[in-house]
Design goal:
Keywords: Membrane, Transmembrane, Transmembrane helix. With about 140 residues, the chain is mainly α. The chain has two domains: about 70 residues; about 70 residues. It is about 85% helix and about 5% strand. It has a two-stranded antiparallel ribbon with strand order 1-2. The termini are far apart.
Length: about 140
């Protein structure tokens, strides 16, 4: 049996389970779900387990295909790309600053959290600027030809 058929049947089973769970929600009714925490837990919890299962399955499939692609392709280029990304994150972390902040509602955000948020934003800015620059360079090269 091919992987496509297995995934098709798995998607069908997950769809049927989701349809059954959705039917349970409809039969329980909105008012009953809002008023009863026990009913809410018994109806919503299975949905969460299905979502967790699907998420784990997708992560597993992505990891399998990424690892398969690594070993069938050029691993040197892949490792250089991952290393460049890690270097960008490290540079962004070193450049970003972090001081403890107090929100409007009085909640305190730690300096470490502020530091990582800043690093994430700087990483995004570096990657976005690099992508834009490469698109411009590619466009200029096409105009020259």
């Amino acid at each position: 049996m091919t992987l496509h058929k297995i995934l098709k049947y798995l998607a069908l089973v997950i769809g049927v389970v989701g349809l059954i769970l959705w039917g349970r929600v409809l039969m329980a009714g909105d008012d009953a779900l809002e008023s009863s925490a026990d009913l809410q837990a018994s109806v919503v919890t299975p949905f969460l387990y299905v979502a967790y299962f699907i998420f784990a399955l997708i992560v597993l499939l992505v990891l399998v295909y990424v690892i398969k692609g690594l070993f069938s392709g050029n691993i040197k280029k892949t490792l250089l790309s991952v290393g460049a990304f890690i270097l960008i994150v490290v540079v962004a972390y070193l450049v970003s600053g972090g001081t403890e902040m107090t929100m409007n509602d009085g909640e305190v955000i730690s300096a470490n959290t502020v530091h990582w948020v800043g690093a994430g934003l700087i990483t995004f800015y570096i990657l976005a600027a690099t992508a834009i620059l490469l698109m411009v360079i590619s466009g200029v090269k096409k105009l020259i030809k």
